[in-house]
Amino acid sequence: MAAASMLGLNDSTGDDKLAFEIFSILENKFLFGPNPSSPSTPGGGNGKVRILSIDAGGSTHGLLAAKSLAHLEATLIRHTGNLHARLADFFDVVAGAGAGGVLAGMLFTRARDGRPLFSAEEALEFMLNNSRKLSGTCSTGGLVRRVFRSSNGSADGLLEKLFGDLTLKDTLKAVLIPCYDLGTGAPFLFSRADALEMDGCDFRMADVCRATIANSKALEMRSNDGRKKISAVGGGVAMSNPTAAAITHVLNNKLEFPLCRGVEDVVVVSLGNGEMDCAAASGNYKSSPAAYLSIAGDGASDMVDQAVSMAFGESRCSNYVRIQGNNGISSTSVNNNNKNKKKKKNLESVADQMLGQKNVESVLFKGKKLGERSNVEKLNEIGKELIKEQQWRNSSGCVLPPVILKHSSTTSLDSPPRSSSATTLSTVSSA
């Protein structure tokens, strides 16, 4: 206990107790050596933090990501033999924007039995069955779509049924869902860590999802305790690809991720939702300002992909997986189809075809190229790696875990967040 004593740590508070335990484990490890019976993680070190990031709706209304998630969860079930395995069991952090935020909420919010509200297959079915709630009025060949119509209240009713009175505190893992706050003129990330640490930062999940898909008009919303308010515009506008925000959250959150030193200590699965078909839409740019908005959104998403790939460097092939359509499929026929059953089938077919495409890889300083493996093959590979990480964690309980998620803590609103650090990108307007 010498190291802990020298640092003046004690167990009088929750943070001091946590720090005391961390230093005690580290002290024991370095003074007496590692336990020879404890296996090392497949990549060496102390395990990797697993991040799932889901883009905003894109050209498939979020269905490419939903299909990817369903396939990945089925892979995990098949290889583990556990019929009750869920994605939330194999990821430590989830970030989702727009439709991706709704998927993140469905898959990582806790039900009454302590398990996720929905399986990935159920989430996919929800997205397909509610395709009528997706905006199909865009005349630009699928460039920009409002994820749900908020003007007629249909999305509100759906989200209320999905989440009820559950809040950010009721999520299972670290959850990050963006919107744009017109009150402060800056992006804002709804964060589980902030909800647990600060009064005024816990929001109802139904409202969080409404905020991240609020594309037809600003959504005026308040925190669960009514103390703070946000004038929210959709997350797809503010942060169409939230991967970088998720990585930043982990690297700056030493309380929950104490051993994460850099990108070599994380594994990221980033799911796109299809990019615009430039050829199909080229004639509509002058007549549709929404097309330019789509260009900006897709461009921002691609820039995040490029930046993250460059940040991973030599580890990008093993630690960073990006699933995205490569513009080879047009969804124009889907948009012009008014028959709901056929439209649902076509939407799912487009997502299936994108999954079968060659994976798009970012090359350092050289843009993109088609990889040798398909999106499905990449998902199968990352599924096996996620299982290896989980097996290592289950068999090495004496080693300091890579993730120590907080479960209960409340501090004054005047106190800065201690674990989420750079995740809150704007200050919520006072009531």
From TrEMBL:
Residues 419-431 have a biased composition (Low complexity). It holds the Pfam family Patatin. InterPro entries: Acyl_Trfase/lysoPLipase, PNPLA_dom. The keyword Lipid metabolism applies. The keyword Amino-acid biosynthesis does not apply. GO terms for biological process: lipid catabolic process. Residues 53-247 form the PNPLA domain. SUPFAM superfamilies: FabD/lysophospholipase-like. Its EC number is 3.1.1.-. Residues 407-431 are annotated as: Disordered. One of its GO terms (molecular function) is hydrolase activity. The nitrogen atoms of the two glycine residues in the GGXR motif define the oxyanion hole, and stabilize the oxyanion that forms during the nucleophilic attack by the catalytic serine during substrate cleavage. Belongs to the patatin family. Lipolytic acyl hydrolase (LAH). This is Patatin. It comes from Oldenlandia corymbosa var. corymbosa. The lineage of its organism: Eukaryota, Viridiplantae, Streptophyta, Embryophyta, Tracheophyta.
